[in-house]
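Hi R.,

Here are the chain sequences for the assembly we discussed:
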Amino acid sequence: MGLSRRNFLKAAAGSGLLAASQLSPVPVLAREPKTRLPEALGILYDATLCIGCKACMTACKEYNNLPADPSSPEGLWDDPLDLSARTYNIVKLYTSGTGKTKDQEADGYSFIRRFCMHCVDPACTSACPVKALSKDPITGIVKYNKDLCIGCRYCQIACPFNVPKFQWDTPFPEIKKCQLCDHRIKRGSYSACCEFCPNGASLFGEVQALRKEAKRRLSLPPGSQATFPIHRLDTGEYRYASVGHYFPKVYGEVDGGGTQVLLMAGVPFQKLGLPDLPPESTASHSETLMHTLYKGMIGPYVLFAGLFYLVYRNTTKKDLP
Amino acid sequence: MEASQPLGGRILTKPFLVLAAVALVGGVLIVYRYVFGLGAVTNLNDGYPWGIWITYDVLVGTALGCGGYAMALVVYAFNKWEYHPLVRSALLTSVFGYTLAGVAVFLDIGRYWNGYNLFLPWRVNFNSVLVEVALCIAAYVVVLWLELAPALLEARPDAKAQRLRRRLETLLPIIVSLGILLPTMHQSSLGALMIIAGPKLSPLWQTPLLPMFFLITAIAMGYAVTVFESLLSSLAFQRPYETPLLARISTVMVSFISIYLVMRFADLVWRGQVQLIFADNLTSLMFIIENLLFLQAVIILAKPGNRSDNRWLFLSAVLLLLGGAVYRFNAFLVGYNPGFGWRYFPALPEIFITLGIVALELLGYLYFVKKYPILPKAEHV
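And here is the predicted structure of the full complex:
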């Protein structure tokens, strides 16, 4: 019996092509924007409650085993200027004019915490060629796997918040970013920044509940006394504080397709260094375009067939000078 | 095929040794990069994670390597066999442009030992534009060497080599079709890479037409580099000029770039971003330079007389190549703004590594045209 060589080659080529078509990007429709996961976890950061103590930064370093990131010439202090491969979380300060009144745009100041926003439709996971960055299907946490990463840094190009950071000073670098203390969550704990925030400025919880909490805060009369949950939303711990003068928006509700980290402040968010993003994610733009061009690889196959026809006809009938 | 022959002559000429020295400096710096990390030799940072290695070596390098693609398109797909004498030398520049772009990628990626993951289908994220680019370029490098292989085998006397050559030649239609399909895919995808950067890229360059613009300019640059290379090698090796052919190619080239310019400005008008051209800052200045380079090439070639004048031909090809290069630098670096405070300008070692790679390309070209039948036989021209 036996397979003749010719037939074997034919079969091999055929199955190769079939396999290739199975592996090709096949989504049938243009890519729809992704929606929020029902059990997604996140953080609500409220700048009006933040006193700038940076306990969250210290806790973040401790529980993620991150080294100090000194910026002063003496190098004695952990005083990072921005997020980096050594710093997943930073508290920044906005000031204007006299800088006297807290949470006020003119002649005021405001703190702002910056860390991974854990996007609903992340650009980094769409960009990553090897799934080294992935979004957890339950918690929605955007995680990094160094064993897959090739170090191409396309995630850094893609991220609208410039969150993924690269280790430039080592021959064996990794991408570094906040993973919402996923390692602590697995043990039943929660994000260190929220556990060590004394004021409830950083609040851990399910995103759906955090969104309700944010809306509640926006509806409270400014200056009145109200209860504010601290550490995490589901334990019922709270404290009393006076309601701040909120800028009427929860950043991350829709921005860039929505994020699982939500921000509230008294100052417009663009002043606090947050990008002004359209409600559609850049990932959906990019993927829609690619899926349109490469839908089922039909375009490339048809183009190849057409080219083959032309080239075959022209090379067999050629009339060389 | 019978119309090509090796140039012959000494390999170790003075230019060859100078280029070898530049390549050696690059090589030493590359070792340094692998020992101390990317930060030790580059000015790359978390704001500008992609620098000249991506923008020049990969984007411009592969566009300059589009000669083989552009010529294959006109000869094999549009049946213009009169251009066939130019195919092999165009192919040779493509082989080196693309192979070394592939090398540059491995210098640039930080965790290169994981690079094989790109070729394991179950590990690959097919939503990533970079996957399309990487796989397509890798496949095309193989196709290019297969396209060039008959020329290399032709120089060998043994019967085995000739059998292999004839076998490859029967596969020519498949190889050539892939050689046209693959660059069409990845040259457009190189532009699509920046779509996900969204508002970080200035609206002067951020458009859904990025893939289209990258493709058209790459094809035009492919013709331009063929003209450039043909004129330079005629000059350097004292061979007759191929002016009548180049004149006709320049007609094709100028029509591509005219269509491009019309689309480019129509797109800006359509998206309502024309005012940014007059913003009087670095990005607007670079936009103006980019488009003046293209426009000047069009203006020169619009006069039919200039097309059969070697000097005008050369100048227009150079202008077009510069325009295409500036467009790529603009779309990936100048127009890219990650936010307040980030700056990037390549470090000296970073530039020297790129120069080393360019030197290696030229070394390869010089060696191959002397040893193998690449350039058309002088008496046939």
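The longest helix of chain A spans residues 5-23. The two ends of chain A are 49 Å apart (CA to CA).

Let me know if anything looks off.

Best,
T.
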